[in-house]
């Protein structure tokens, strides 16, 4: 988990779990990536069904 966390977000789990500001930045980034991925899926589905 440590490597995945550090690789994806540039911060280790220990820092993530102890620092609220870091945790909020990581979660905001995750949310933005999720929304973007949902937009990409919706765009692909529109293209496939048109």
Walk me through this protein's architecture.
The chain is mainly α and 50 residues long. It has helices at 2-9, 13-18, 20-49. The longest helix has 30 residues, at 20-49. The protein is elongated and about 50 Å long. The relative contact order is 0.09.
Quick recap:
This protein has 3 helices and no strands. It has helices at residues 2-9, 13-18, 20-49.
Radius of gyration: 15 Å
Large-scale geometry: elongated
For the largest beta-sheet, the strand count, sense and barrel status come to: none
Total count of helical runs of at least 4 residues: 3
Distance between the termini: 41 Å
What are the salient characteristics of this protein?
elongated; mainly alpha
Question: Which secondary structure elements does this structure contain, and how are they paired or packed?
Answer:
Layout: H1 2-9, H2 13-18, H3 20-49
